[in-house]
Amino acid sequence: MILLNRREGSNDLLSLMPPGLAHLTTLPYTDAAWNGVGPGGGNVCVGVERKRITDLVQSMTSGRLSGHQLPGLVEMYAHRWLLVEGAYRESDNGLLEIPKGGG
Q1: For residue 32, which of 60, 13, 57 has the smallest C-alpha distance?
Q2: Percent of the residues in the chain that have a pLDDT greater than 90, as a whole number
């Protein structure tokens, strides 16, 4: 069973899943989580934080990512993934450039 966070930004994933594979719940640090089988056949917890590029930049700037989300991921999950969505590139002056509608 895949657990999906019910908050905005996560709950839209439910419609992409086959019926019965996932359900909405409250997750403190991730957008999706599940139990998997690790080395030696033991259970491992997997957590995925999904961010659009603009949200990633904002959460890095505010300190939310490093001060809250990443420590929680490390504490709660044996395997942690940060999934970044969106188009971006380096601009001529070396800064991050996000095309309109790309992030």
Answers
A1: 13
A2: 70
